[in-house]
Design a protein that fits this description.
Layout (H helix, E strand, L loop, with lengths): L2 E6 L13 E6 L13 E3 L19
Antiparallel strand pairs: 1-2, 2-3
Length: 62
């Protein structure tokens, strides 16, 4: 299985306030579709969190 992540450090929640940030994951083998949200992402809890802004990542599926 191949997993991919997309960082969106300027993602805004439903209140339209920017910079909560999100890191969204998906299945690179079968594909993924949809909007960034709490069901498919790690999101910031507060304005200015910018989740994904600094994002070192190494993933290895065994």
């Amino acid at each position: 299985m191949v997993i991919f992540v997309i960082k969106s450090q300027y993602w805004k929640n439903s209140s339209a306030i920017e910079e909560y940030g999100a890191v969204t994951w998906g299945n690179g083998s079968s594909g993924s579709a949809g909007v960034v949200g709490i069901n498919n992402s790690l999101i910031g809890a507060n304005v200015g969190n910018k989740v994904g802004d600094v994002f070192p990542l190494k993933m290895e599926i065994i």
